[in-house]
Amino acid sequence: MKKIKVLALGALLAGFSISCQKDAVTADNQELTKEVSQEILSKLSSVGVDPTGAKYDVMVLPGGETREVISVSDLNFAVDELKKMADLAVMEDGLNRQYRTTNLVSSSRRTIDILGFTGSGNALTSKMRTALQWAVNNYNRINTTLNFRLTFGTNHTDSSIDMVVYNNNRSGGGGSAGFPTSAGAPHKYIQINAGTDSFNTNVVEHVMTHEIGHSIGLRHTDYFNRNCDGINEGDGGVGAIHIPGTPTGIDSSSIMISCFSGNEDGEFNGNDVTALEYLY
Ligand SMILES: [Zn+2]
After folding, report:
1. From the CB of residue 136, how many other CB atoms can be counted at a distance below 10 Å?
2. Which of 27, 68, 194, 262 has its CA 20 to 30 A from that of 13?
3. How far apart are CA 136 and CA 148, in angstroms?
4. CA of 129 relative to ligand 1 center, distance in Å
5. Is the pTM of this model over 0.70?
6. Other Cβ atoms within 10 Å of 13 Cβ, number
């Protein structure tokens, strides 16, 4: 099975035991320095994320500034933001369908300015830039009220920038992102692992489109039973609200499937489009 092979490779490269490509964030230089508290673990649960494997991680922004985050799978949570999200939590059913988080991009933000980072140290490769353009085209091609505007540059702290996509220089394929904030802003920083560049442009497009999907509120379509490792990321919380019109069961061709293969075409399937057009 090609998917398993690619995932095994990712895990090998990353020295990481969980075989999800998008988990393939290298652990090599990220020693755990403290345990995640019970309070944080229960907040993760209450927003619908299984806290298993949650760890503190240092997210390095373009330019070198660092932020401490709680990292689970390919998702990063700032601690204070997680607390706000948990406070908003309400129980929802946990059936096997396409899911979104409670927080979505607010209706006052219809133009999403994305910066593809080109500054030294964290520049997207030329393949990544092409793939990011294709990913943005995916979102602009469907019938939603969102309009994504892509520019390339270095000014990631500019307040007009909603999302920054950058190369985190980590090995293994995949990336990481987060969910919209309690204030209705998209998740800002999307990290693409340097190792993703070894895949073809369509696969990189898939990773870009997937991480942008998280950043505007999509969860993994197989969050309850990940296609590559069977892990249940958690249900029953505010972070797993079914999107009407999407199917039950694992939707293996969804852009929001948790793990990717080397054969991805980078495109939405029909259910992804239904989900996005319903939400936005
Ligand atoms: Zn993901």
Report:
1. 22
2. 68
3. 6
4. 20
5. yes
6. 17
